[in-house]
Amino acid sequence: MSLPYRTALIVGAGAGISAALARQLTAEGLRVGLAARDVDKLADLAAETGAETFAADAADPRAVERLFAEADARIGEPDVVIYNASARAPGPLAALDPEAVRRALDVTAFGAFLVAQAAARRMERRGHGALLFTGATAGVKGFPLSAAFAMGKFALRGLAQSAARELGPKGIHVAHIVVDGAVRSARRPDPADKPDSTLTPEGVARAYLDLLRQPRDAWSFEVELRPWVERF
User: Whose CB among 63, 111, 128, 176 lies 3.0–4.6 Å from 59's, allowing a Cys bridge?
Assistant: First the structure.
């Protein structure tokens, strides 16, 4: 079943899940835009996939406005928008730098709001589109030394729930994906004594595409992804 979309914008693009998404979406025939603060890191991926790159700070309202205006002009109004940006400020609660926490919340939650707002304005006109948010275990349960990340991801989940209830009846598929486990990478391979204990970026990306293929009479809002050996 082919995807009922033509263009996609991935905000917070880089290696891992967003790179796998870029590859799979372009393989499905979509025009893809990749947005990040540092676009130099996207050069190889853009060359491989033919994706357009956009420099943007997702937590800056004017930067998000420019991002969508440029995306409209270069790839067309995005039918699919994926928010994959997040930031952390780890450490003991009593020792956290308030400004570092503010920045983490700005990127993980406020940026998601700005991007969702810009996407909704476009998708509501057409009565069509998909808005996907990359969540985490921290959006379901908070862990020690990770207050800022939990705050941001809990806010992201709340935004997604509200957006789904508002935009779903308008023809816009909103979904929140809980990535409940570590994602495999060259820097973080499976431990030798725990094979298959991480999620592969490709497997996660396939789950996003499965969501995008769902008919509107059977839309999922929240999907939890974890490796088969994960305890939860």
Answer: 111
Place of tokens 């069509």: 128
How far is it, in rounded angstroms, from Cα 19 to Cα 137?
21
Residue 108 sits at φ, ψ, to 5 deg, of -75, -40
Contact 17, 134 (CB under 8 A): yes
Query: What residues contact residue 47 under an 8 Å CB cut-off, 6+ apart?
Result: none
- Between CA 97 and CA 114 the distance in angstroms is 24
For residues 216 and 208, give the distance between their C-alpha atoms in angstroms, rounded to a whole number.
15
Question: pLDDT of 27-37, one tens digit each?
Answer: 999 999 999 99
- Please say whether the beta carbons of 148 and 101 come within 8 A: yes
- C-alpha neighbours within 13 Å on the C-beta side of residue 215: 3
Angle at 55 between CA 54 and CA 58, to 5 degrees: 105
Residue 1 has pLDDT above 80, yes or no: no
pTM: 0.96
Give percent of the chain above pLDDT 70: 100
